[in-house]
Design a protein that fits this description.
- The protein contains 15 helices and 13 strands.
- By secondary structure, the protein is α/β, with parallel strands linked by helices.
- It has two domains: 260 residues, Metallo-beta-lactamase, Chain A (4-Layer Sandwich); 88 residues, Alpha Horseshoe (Serine Threonine Protein Phosphatase 5, Tetratricopeptide repeat).
- The strands form two sheets. The chain has a seven-stranded mixed sheet with strand order 1-2-3-4-5-6-7, with helices on both faces.
- A hairpin with a 4-residue loop joins β3 and β4.
Length: 418
């Protein structure tokens, strides 16, 4: 059994440690998983097909693993790269082509044709427009030491809207568009191999469909895409993150349960929205399907299911959350100072936060600690308490996104105290 196949089996059995599979923890290796079909396991995966008329890539991995991808592919096949497909324009999927294009230029080979959805160029344009913001939020989310985000992109040469069937050499590649993690998402069906390449519509974690710092995502359409994939009867699933899944029964179960998770969140949220419930009430009323969230491939280690509820509200209800005080709110600092005056000072708020933290009421402790900090940002004890509360909250979260935000709040308080 190869390294990737062994990794896949261990992941399915759930014996890879505390978090099992985490998008940020990857086996970096290239392996042939079928005659003429190679798979690159990395932070962001990619697959390669030998067609007899050049290689076809579905995804290209990230800048960080471009060299590994090139080395793995070239140790497997000498064919030029005929076509590369972006499943979507997230930067961890579109920066592995550079070494191959440099090679093609040196050898005088034809230029690789890059194919993506028609919304992908607009995504790259938006990334250029919000480059600083994206650097900041990625530093917060992944706890990078400083903001970093690319400023140059390899735009697609050809785009599709709904479907596109490629016939390259002896291979057929069927591309289909469905909104999910992004509006420009494409997934691939490889009929010769009865194999799906899902991109980020499957990532060995609860679907990344709520991300609080990123653009709109589409939970209902995502579930529909998973059902379409499930109906194909695939025997192999190659995900955007994490190891492949082998065997028709396993693929069917993984796709079906991922769809079911999204479907129940959509159904509950929309039912409550349609009765006039506020967002806060919905967030505290939705019943999370623990049976599904315990699966090794659906654990909430990256995104949080409650963030998906928020994204559904944003998609269907706008940004007003139902609380009239939030429509045109006071400055945070003004409200916090008023609350501090009413209760006897920022120190009282900080002490109350400390008490709630001791009781295990992390949510209220965070509110009180933030109010204390906004009311007295220069008070070293308030800042220290603020850092303690948010660091404790981070330790009790499962999702990388929540941990990133809470740890960033704690670091900000630590830094200001120095």
């Amino acid at each position: 059994m190869g390294e990737v196949l062994e990794f896949s089996e261990r992941a399915w059995q759930g014996d890879l440690g505390e978090n099992n599979i985490h998008p940020g923890r990857a086996l970096v290796a290239f392996e042939e998983i079928g005659a003429g079909l190679g798979f690159m396991s990395a932070f962001s995966n990619a697959c390669a097909l030998e067609t007899g008329d050049g290689l076809v890539f579905v995804d290209t991995s990230s800048f960080f693993h471009a060299a590994n991808f090139f080395e793995g592919v070239r140790g497997w096949s000498p064919e030029r790269v005929h076509t590369a497909v972006y499943t979507h324009g997230h930067v961890d999927h579109v920066f592995g082509l550079t070494p191959f294009e440099e090679e093609a230029n040196q050898r005088g080979w034809p230029t690789t044709e890059v194919i993506a959805h028609e919304c992908c160029p607009e995504r790259f344009d938006r990334y250029l427009l919000t480059n600083g913001y994206n650097g900041i939020i990625n530093a917060r989310q992944f706890e990078f030491p400083k903001p970093v985000f690319p400023k140059h992109y390899r735009y697609p040469d050809r785009t599709l809207r709904d479907t596109l069937t490629l016939q390259i050499g002896r291979e057929t590649i069927e591309l289909r568009h469905d909104r999910g993690e992004t509006d420009d998402h494409v997934w691939a069906w490889l009929p010769t191999y009865k194999t799906l390449y899902t991109g980020d519509l499957f990532i060995w974690a609860a679907p990344n469909c709520g991300n609080p710092q990123k653009a709109q995502r589409y939970p209902r359409e995502w579930a529909e895409a998973l059902r379409k994939m499930q109906a194909l009867g695939a025997e192999q699933l190659l995900p955007g993150h994490g190891p492949p899944i082998f065997g028709a029964a396993r693929v069917d179960r993984a796709l079906g349960e991922a769809a079911e998770l999204l479907e129940t969140l959509c159904q509950q949220t929309l039912e409550m929205m349609n009765t006039g419930a506020r967002l806060n009430d919905i967030l505290h009323s939705v019943e999370l399907p623990e049976r599904l969230l315990e699966r090794p491939y659906l654990r909430p280690v990256y995104d949080d299911p409650l963030f998906i509820v928020r994204n559904l509200w944003r998609l269907y209800g706008g940004w007003y959350d139902g609380n009239p005080a939030h429509l045109k709110p006071a400055r945070d600092a003004d409200l916090s100072r008023s609350l501090a005056e009413l209760c006897g000072g920022p120190e009282v708020l900080a002490q109350a936060a400390e008490g709630k933290l001791a009781d295990g009421d992390f949510a209220v402790a965070c509110h009180l600690a933030e109010h204390a900090l906004q009311a007295a940002p220069e008070d070293p004890r308030v800042r220290a308490l603020h850092a303690t509360v948010f660091r404790a909250r981070a330790r009790h979260e499962t999702s990388l996104m929540a941990k990133g935000v809470y740890n960033a709040a704690a670091r900000d308080s630590d830094d200001a105290a120095e």
